[in-house]
Amino acid sequence: MDLAYLWFFIVGFLFVGYFVLDGFDFGVGMSLPFLGKDNVSRRQIINTIGPVWDLNETWVIVAGACLFAAFPEWYATLFSGFYLPLLLILLALIMRGVSFEYRHQRDSDRWRRNFDRMIVIGSAVPALLWGVAVANIVQGVPLDANHEFTGSLLTLLNPYGLLGGVTTLLLFFTHGVYFVALKTDGQVSADARKLAGRAGLLTIVVAAVFLVWTIVMAFGQERDLAWITVLCSAIAAVLLIASWVANMRGREGWAFGFGAFTIVSAVLALWFALFPYVMPSTVDLATNSLTIENASSTDYTLTIMSWAALVFLPLVLLYQGWTYWVFRKRIARTTIERASVAAEH
């Protein structure tokens, strides 16, 4: 296989990992107003991702770095054309990270409530805008002969792009609520299962519409791997329904696992729908589009990157797996209550 095509799928793998891992982070953050009845329950929810949220975010940094090195033309067009939404995502991630670190620094309900709002906003904005961005990349955007984006922010806010944003928002929300149910006990866990049941039904409907639209578009534009998009979409649909059924039966682990593989299958469906383009042009698909071949770096660069990935990627995966194993236990309400009493004395 040509190295450019290999790196197209490696970058796809990195974004799959990011959406699965930071996706449930976003969902946990968005669940605060629904599940956090008091400060103890809110701390219980936030502590489920306390040891891992920053590690999850490194996936998007690595994905961006690999995109820059492997596909500089794609990186340049994407980050210049999608500058404002990507800036909003960055600011939201900063807001969320600051809130995690500072909400407990002062014993004030007003202080904590303000940072809790920032966590919700900092989780919802990326969850929405990532879907808008990816959907527009797959659908195509106006590119001129120099592969420069000629649209505006309003160009990205088209029906398909907005539906993609709502789909990722709901998927991440439901995925995160599954995680809260899995990682907490008592009333928070019970409330999370009920919330996931309601949110899951809406997610199933919206995701089905989005994936069907994606399939129709892929075949309409005669994308090379449109048939794999159909397969991945079908798998995603089955897994999403399975996650909802598992949750309704009180099987939190299975629900979260099925939810994670739902996101994997859905992102792969979009990635295969994109092939062989990296940014299709709605002005002239044949001439103005960025493809895997015309957007990639030299073979020498990709060869060096391949050897580096072969060495370091398994180490990163092992380290992240070990981290999740260390922090695998549920966050008990009684533990937080005892810690609060100890802090007061």
Automatic annotation (TrEMBL):
Pfam family, one: Cyt_bd_oxida_II
Main location: membrane
Membrane topology: Multi-pass membrane protein
Keyword Nucleotide-binding annotated: no
Transmembrane segments: 6-32, 77-98, 119-139, 159-181, 201-219, 225-246, 253-274, 304-327
Cited InterPro entries: Cyt-d_oxidase_su2 (IPR003317)
Domain of life: Bacteria
Subcellular location field: Cell membrane
Family that this chain belongs to: Belongs to the cytochrome ubiquinol oxidase subunit 2 family.
NCBIfam families: cydB
Protein name: Cytochrome d ubiquinol oxidase subunit II
Gene: cydB
